[in-house]
Amino acid sequence: MRIITDSAADFTREELEQNDVHCVPMQVIFGAESFSASALSAEEFWRRLLSGEIGKTSQPSPDAFFAEFEAAQRAGEEVVCIVVSSAISGTMQSAMIAASMLESARIHIVDSLSAAGGQKLLAMRACQLRDQGRLTAAQIASELTRLRSRVHVYAGLDTLENLARSGRISKAAANIGTLAQLKPLVRLTPETAGGVDVCGKAVGRHRAIDAVARMISQHRLDERYPVIPLYTHSSDNCAALIRKLQACGVAVSEHMASALGPTLATHIGAGAYGAAFVEAE
Q: N or C: which end of the chain has fewer CB within 10 A?
């Protein structure tokens, strides 16, 4: 069985190898230059973004997914493919087109209705179920579809400018961050149907971190799944959030922290922090 995801799940190369996960990367575009999200180094990406260059992303082509699906077919493998939320990217459509080209009942595509750590949690669960060896690919896909209804991502951002520029939120929603020191809070949860929702604001970084920790701790977490802290560029804000969560009784560890790569960081900018988790049934 082959587990496939896209670069919005933000697996490191080491994590992909350790978990035997295949990644179809998106493209990151600066001006006339286009880079594979998997090949663009963090240093080069942040050098460009922080110097004022405006970045864009492009979903993987159907051909990119077709190559992975066809390789799995040649190897006699079933496929479970977990993609970034269809509410914020056309990646799902590319994967569906590729699957239709092969006309195979052995390819199962799951819309994560999430991104970053939320998408990663689903892919990690797929790997666990694959390694247990008791379920077919179709059964694993069904299990992930049920699980995604309990996956939440909460985050604090330094600004909403990048999200508004890319069309992930409205310009009207972005206006809450125009006042000095007003920090936006966002969520990507079952209630938002896979879209990004501006769920609050706080004056200053410290109050924003407190607010994100409070929103997360108000949920009853499923302790069978890890809490995945998230950050862009610097992990300082994320470390502060982890301490707040621990003080609230949330079992979370710094070693699980996941840096958002170019696929998502292009639309979020530096200084973001948050966490992904699974809510208890």
A: C
